Amino acid sequence: MIDDIKKTLWATADKLRANMDAAEYKHIVLGLIFVKYISDSFQTHRTELTRRLSDAGDDYFLDNSDANILQEELEDRDYYKEANVFWVPEPARWETLRAQAKQPDIGKRIDDALTLIEAENPKLKGILDKRYARVQLPDGKLGELVDMVSTIGFGTTGQSARDLLGQVYEYFLGQFASAEGKRGGQFYTPASIVKTLVAVLAPHQGQVYDPCCGSGGMFVQSEKFIEAHGGTIGDVSIYGQESNPTTWRLAAMNLAIRGIDFNLGKEPADTFVRDQHPDMRADFVLANPPFNISDWWHGSLEGDPRWVYGTPPQGNANYAWLQHMLYHLKPNGRAGIVLANGSMSSSQNSEGDIRRAMVEADKVEIMVAMPGQLFFNTQIPACLWFLVKQKSKHKGEVLFIDARKLGTMISRVQIEFTDADIQRIADTVHAWREDGEASVDYADVAGFCRSVTLAEIAEHGHVLTPGRYVGAEAVEDDDEAFGDKMLKLTETLGEQMAKGIELDALIRQKLGGLGYEF
């Protein structure tokens, strides 16, 4: 049911886009969904407050039957602030905007509403994107979009309305990323990759950090994992950073719409040059940094304390990201990072030296090779690095998993891990760690997984490509079974050849009767 709703809404929204570029249009649509969310949350709390103020048995009971007094009380911002609900001034409430949807200046009215909301809620300052007055949509289309967004959450209340809006927001993010192709990968990591990271790291509680958080997908999946395992949103603290201002806004809205408290820094900023959380040490780091960035270096980074295992090359940020993640981990923390496959074997410009130093220091816990075509923005095969500050078990070993044969084609150009694929990877890791999450004992599986000593890795020049260590899949070596199969195949082939000779003779006979000679 919910999937049908999301698909129908997307089809409608995409139709209203007309010729507008998806990169621009996503901010218009997602901004409206966010305004609808905060307005719905405000109205839901207001309705509940009205009931409590009128209930003689409630602590909030207002012992006054004057309707005007009740309305004045409902406008007291403290009631909403204490419940962590954004205050929405009357001119900015969704029903007010909906009533004005057909007005020719609806764009300016939305911008004015956003300005009012920001003024009343300091936490939203700089997050709401006021671009509606200049939006390049055909006449009437913006009003139709307001009408469409008005249907989201209709007939639902409270938690279910918020969940629905959150799911629609997340679904639309994915659809826009797909529509934008290469550019879409800059703000969205496909859900199956994020789920894999989260399933392996198992972030039950503590501080979760993503230094290149895009639209916040890592945090959303972490929240889902926690709730699925009986926890609550408040069990983790969210810290993120994002350099792109519009993407930073998308992340803030994505988290706020789910009621997740977050700290994305004071402003959008470059993680290397203007680290927004320099003193923070996280329990879990989850990240999908942009692959192979070549223009990341700045002179101020020379001698940076993050470069514990060597100064990263100025022409590629991969090993800067890896060391940044390690630096921000607590002593018992774990990090999961998506990087291009080249990071596992490159020896150019000090990368091999840094990798060797990290391996020898026993900071690399698990390496997972993934299939190509998992991303919107690149066909480059990627891998997952799992790093630790210190290992409690399997010291001096690295678990290698070759997941390149997993995944299912979901479109002509994209592969996705199924839930069963993700579970297989996660079960393998938890069994190897012996961490209580596992339901089976660990065993090496030829062609899929193997636990390898640092000494053996050193023999391979500290290359961390799983295919080099896990070997080939086991093949059937039952001589009797093989012999039986060959006998059957030989008999079938003999029968087919005999049938072919009969048919050839019959054809020659028929054609001879027609006067053809051979």
Labels describing this entry:
single chain, 518 residues, alpha/beta, Ferritin, Rossmann fold, 3 domains, 9-stranded mixed beta sheet, two-stranded antiparallel ribbon, 17 helices, 11 strands, globular
Textual characterization of the structure:
The chain has 518 residues and is α/β, with parallel strands linked by helices. It folds into three domains: 2-181, Ferritin; 203-470, Vaccinia Virus protein VP39 (Rossmann fold, 3-Layer(aba) Sandwich), CATH 3.40.50; 481-518. Helix content is 44%, strand content 11%. Strands 3-2-1-4-5-7-6-8-11 form a nine-stranded mixed beta sheet, sandwiched between helices. A two-stranded antiparallel sheet has the order 9-10. β9 (408-409) and β10 form a beta hairpin. The longest helix has 35 residues, at 479-513.
In short:
With 518 residues, this protein is an alpha/beta fold.
Q: Beta fraction of the residues?
A: 5-15%
> Spans of 5+ residues with little confidence (pLDDT < 50)?
475-480
Number of strands: 11
Structural class: alpha/beta
Helix content: 40-55%
How large is the count of helical segments? Answer: 17
The CATH topology label of the largest domain is: Rossmann fold
Name the average pLDDT.
Answer: 83
Sequence of secondary-structure elements: HHHHHHHHHEHEHEEHEHEEEEEHEHHH
Please tell me how large the radius of gyration is. Answer: 29 Å
CA distance, first residue to last residue: 69 Å
Topology readout:
Layout lengths: L1 H15 L5 H32 L13 H8 L2 H5 L12 H6 L6 H15 L20 H10 L7 H23 L10 H11 L4 E5 L6 H12 L7 E5 L4 H12 L5 E2 L18 E6 L30 H10 L1 E12 L10 H10 L3 E6 L12 E7 L8 E6 L5 E2 L5 E2 L2 H15 L15 E5 H6 L7 H4 L8 H35 L5
Parallel strand pairs: 1-2, 1-4, 2-3, 4-5, 6-8
Antiparallel strand pairs: 5-7, 6-7, 8-11, 9-10
Helix pairs in contact: 1-7, 1-8, 2-7, 2-8, 2-11, 9-10, 9-14
